[in-house]
Amino acid sequence: MAELFDGIAQRQFNKILCGAISNAHLREYFNACFQEAIDSYGAYQCWTCINCMRQGNATQGWGAPPSRCTRCRSPLVYEIATFQSRSSIVGSAFEAAFFHLIQTHYRIPLTLTPGNTRTHDFEVTGEVAIEAKGSPSKVANPNSTFTELDRPGLERSDTKKKAFDNARTYRQRNPTGLFFIVSNAVPSDLVGYRNRDVTAVFDVNKTDRIESMILEIRGKVDLPYLQRQRGWTPT
Ligand SMILES: [Zn+2]
């Protein structure tokens, strides 16, 4: 499954970010990774009519359910619970997209967090932890309609709380480490936010914010050394 998301990130990176990178390119890249992941799993918004199904028929459609079935006029129309799987699909797509971007374009040697550590997704060394929380604001359905998803990324309070709780746990174990939260949707009250646990929140749709993150990483770890360890030319 991880390979599928890595493949998507690689393909979209080569298509969208092969030249100079602008904020618009970054947004396009993350959105394309989300959409390709949704396409792969068929995790669109859709509905079906239970009354038709009971009679051995099938009536269904893309997008939000209508108030009555388009065939039998029954109100027994329900949204199919694809939204439950969608959040883990787009979460994984975001992680893979971020990982690929930061490794390939910015040449930061990220690794997946080892072992049972659940507080963050990636690290540079144990001294630099990165928690990735991203999701799209809309999904394109196969009939060319769009489903708007409310509160993407860190705009959802549950998602923000989870990331902040993870930061607190990391901080208890690691008083001097850096803990970054990265997202494609950062609400205005979290722009430039810092507290004792969260070192910084970065919007990955903005090149200057990614560069700020890299400066902070450079200040903490010997980046040229780590790059040489990977067999890379130091940047
Ligand atoms: Zn029906």
In sequence order, what are the helices and strands, one letter per element? HHEHEEHEEEEEHEEHH
Overall residue-averaged pLDDT value:
95
Structural class: alpha+beta
Major sheet details: 5 strands, mixed
Question: Regarding quaternary structure, how should these chains be classified?
Answer: single chain
Number of helices: 7
How much helix is in the residues?
40-55%
CATH class of the largest domain: Alpha Beta
- CATH architectural type of the largest domain: 3-Layer(aba) Sandwich
Identify the strand order in the major beta sheet.
Answer: 4-5-6-9-10
Could you tell me how far the N terminus lies from the C terminus, measured between alpha carbons in angstroms? 32 Å
Record field, number of beta strands: 10
CATH topology of the largest domain: Restriction Endonuclease
Counted up, domains total: 2
The small-molecule ligands in this entry are: zinc ion
Q: What is the 3D shape?
A: elongated
The Cα radius of gyration reads 20 Å
The poorly predicted ranges are none
